[in-house]
Design a protein that fits this description.
By secondary structure, the protein is α/β, with parallel strands linked by helices. The protein is 41% helix and 16% strand. The longest helix has 22 residues.
């Protein structure tokens, strides 16, 4: 009996250590909002806990009344730390989208409580996994940078459509919501090799520090990308792949999304018919959801969370 008890002790100690790490895995959620604030509150309600904190960016063009209501309800809902980045009035595809993200990163690094993991979400994302599983996942992968980052050739001037050359070597400007592409002028090669991926990621504290510092100090890259198109999909992957973190980048993120021939440049809106696919995806989050189109899929995910991952 003593021999069995002795051999079991290291296993118990290891299990206890893993449980303690899981309970202390601090996660900061950086959330981009421009509408659907009540749906965003639902997202926050699912993620809020003693080890969670939030940094929000509310688009500068959002209506003031629902924003004020959101902030008031948030104060009643969340007891954990909440921060707001300075607002940018962003336009889809413009540099200002990337700027909104970078402002969140800066607040998360400088002002928010120190966390172990930082996730970028939109207000129309929703967790597939519950908070316990999310914490467990990152505890088991403490050094991995969950980020899509694929090299892009910006030298092919003849490539059709929204090619890397078109997006980053051409000059793009916005007048209101209208994008203007300069017909003659071209930029030279970028100051760093361009890497592309999904906007959404889950990064470590050290990576967030690197991005925040580089955003402030690397004016050459900032100036180059300021006149690009869909820059939010390349800014952080490019910085990460030019850093000591490149070997830690997994090439995938933790957010499920699906594009279809009819969804255009945005992912399809998920419905309850997609539930089985979501639960089998091995992802932690999914996007995008719309409580007006089909809120029942989020209801079913809530049931799955409450049932410990099975419904």
């Amino acid at each position: 009996m003593l021999q069995g008890a002795s051999s079991a002790q290291p296993v118990t100690l290891v299990a206890s250590k893993i449980l303690k790490q899981r309970m202390t895995m601090r996660i900061c959620y950086l959330v981009l909002l421009h509408h659907k604030f009540d749906q965003a509150l639902r997202l926050v309600r699912r993620l809020a806990g003693p080890e969670s904190s939030f940094v929000f960016h509310v688009d500068g063009a959002a209506d003031a009344k629902p924003v004020a209501a959101f902030r008031a309800k948030l104060d009643c809902l969340v007891t954990t730390p909440v921060h707001f980045a300075d607002s940018v009035s962003s336009v889809w595809g413009s540099y200002r989208q990337a700027l909104a993200i970078m402002r969140c990163v800066r607040v998360a690094y400088r002002d928010a409580e120190r966390c172990d993991r930082y996730l970028l979400l939109s207000g129309q994302d929703y967790p597939i996994a519950d908070r316990t599983h999310i914490a467990e996942f990152f505890t088991e992968n403490p050094d991995k940078e969950f980020l899509e980052a694929f090299p892009r050739d910006v030298t092919d001037a003849g490539a059709p459509g929204w090619s890397p050359y078109y997006r980053f070597r051409r000059y793009h400007f916005w007048i209101g919501d209208r994008r203007i592409t300069v017909p003659v002028l071209r930029k030279g090669q970028p100051p760093l090799p361009i890497y592309h991926g999904s906007t959404w990621w889950a990064l470590t504290r050290a990576a967030i520090e690197h991005i925040a510092v580089q955003f402030e100090s690397n004016e050459t890259l900032k100036r180059y990308l300021r006149t690009g198109f869909l820059v939010d999909e390349v800014y952080i992957p490019t910085l990460m792949m030019a850093s000591r973190f490149a070997s830690k980048v997994t090439g995938e993120n933790v957010t499920y999304a699906e594009w279809t021939p009819t969804s255009g440049p945005h992912p399809k809106t998920l419905r309850v018919d997609d539930l089985a696919t979501l639960l089998k995806s091995q992802k932690l989050f999914a996007r995008k959801f719309d409580d007006v189109v089909d809120g029942s899929v989020m209801d079913q995910l809530d049931l799955s969370h409450d049932a410990g991952g099975s419904i």
